[in-house]
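Protein: NAD(P)-binding domain-containing protein
Species: Sanghuangporus baumii
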Amino acid sequence: MKVLVIGGSRNIGYYSAQRLLGNGATVIFLLRNTSCFDTDESIKQYIASGKARLVQGDALKKEDVGKALAIASEGDEPLDAVHFSVGTFPKFSITKGLVLDPPNLCARSMLNLLSVLPRDPASQPKLVVVSSTGLGKTAHAALPLPLKPFYGLVLDGAKGPHADKLGMERVITYAAGWEWPAADGEPDKTILADGWQDHVGPYGWLKHAVVVRPALLTDGDSVGENPKKAGEAPYRALDHEMKGGYTISRKDVAHFIVTRVLPEWNQWEGKRVRIAY
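Structure follows.
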């Protein structure tokens, strides 16, 4: 298997890449700073062996995303999948909560990726996108009651992390031809400017995509890797809103993507999957 990882310098993208490499996959990283693994022995060994390749570039630049896709597509081995988990640490504002700079990092990066992916379904790699739970009115209504104030005040501002991810999901939904809930409205124009559809291409061309919507993320260990009880499901993964889904560790999101989504693709393709303990 060969996978292009966009957003793999840390967190879910990094943990997924580690698992993929450990399973024998070839991983191509698109990185703004290719020195980020200079002291990382777990990745350096794969760079030395050629199983990991670092491509310098910025997901906010279409030409850089196109370059990474072209490099990942080289050789006799086909590009099987693109793992997209772009994100950054937002800044905190007393009046606005958590604010991203730029406010549309995920949405713009996704626009760039979709603008260079092959349109022919036969040559499209699988696309796995890490998003978030609680996006939009429908998903927010399904959140556990104690989490609603936090999501509403901190994450869901007009220029907060969820506004950006909502824009990202709007772009994917259009490209994939999925239904967009009318109650969720349209993203703010600071996230998606007028005419964004022109960058995506024709409606419904994206055939091989899965969106993973984790609950509130933690830095805990992977329960999927080390189950607390034999035979017990380590976490829940559903293609509809779930009750009582409070948290999930970043390592378990990676565990789900690598051990279930990619090898069980026919089960998950075309779905927006919620994952939580």
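Remarks: The mean pLDDT is 91.
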